[in-house]
Amino acid sequence: MLGWTLSAQAQDASADNDDLPQVRVSTTEGAFEIRLRPDIAPETVANFLDYVEQGFYDGTVFHRVIPGFMIQGGGFDSDLRKKATDDPIRNESRQTAKNLRGTIAMARTRNPDSATSQFFINLADNPHLNATRSSPGYTVFGSVTQGMGAVDAIANVQTTRANGMANVPVEPVIIQSIRLIDDEQ
Q1: Longest dimension (CA), the chain
Q2: pLDDT higher than threshold 80 for residue 116
Q3: Which of 14, 106, 122, 168 could form a cystine bridge with 162, CB 3.0-4.6 A?
Q4: Residue 34 and residue 114: Cα distance in Å, rounded?
Q5: SS3 of 129, please?
């Protein structure tokens, strides 16, 4: 298994980057790119790319923003209405895939196998989210390769309580689109 212990960039450098899919996330706070890791989380990446291909994420928001921890999105529209999703997927977290700054992981409930469309980007190293022998953890399936400044800009927006949720941006941070980056671009 690949060594995922230094940083998101070091994790990303351990794979043959030419063969890994990438997506561009365009938001109202700027754009960033993510290299996906089907080599460590094949079902998770396939699930995420299915949503991308459907255009599911277009118009969704980052609905949970906690500076120094993570930003979460991909499940609610700009009116904070939850979108209907496909069936949940199996948790693929592994002890070697760490929740480090700049990695993307699947959001889920207490049930480890409950992830659908929602994801989060780690703003810091979050070892308490990693898989251990006694805890399933949260499935890391890629890392930000460009545009971490846009992720940090999202992390710095003002938040409030809305629709029974805490840490909701006062002004919606909209995911305008997530698109697969073509190899020829």
Answers
A1: 44
A2: yes
A3: 168
A4: 23
A5: helix
Question: What domains can be seen in the chain, in order of their start residue?
Answer: 20-180 (2.40.100.10)
Task: Answer yes or no: pTM beyond 0.85.
Answer: yes
Q: Let me know how long the chain is.
A: 185
13 in helix, strand or coil? helix
Tokens at residue 12, please? 């990303």
The type of residue at 25 is: V
Amino acid code (one letter) for 160: T
Instruction: Dump pLDDT digits (tens) for 7-36.
Output: 444 444 455 677 899 999 999 999 999 999
Q: Do the Cβ atoms of 175 and 61 come closer than 8 Å?
A: yes
Measure the CA–CA gap between 36 and 69, rounded to whole angstroms: 21
Contacts of 167 (CB under 8 A, 6+ apart): 64, 65, 66, 159
Q: How many CB atoms lie within 10 A of CB 104?
A: 26
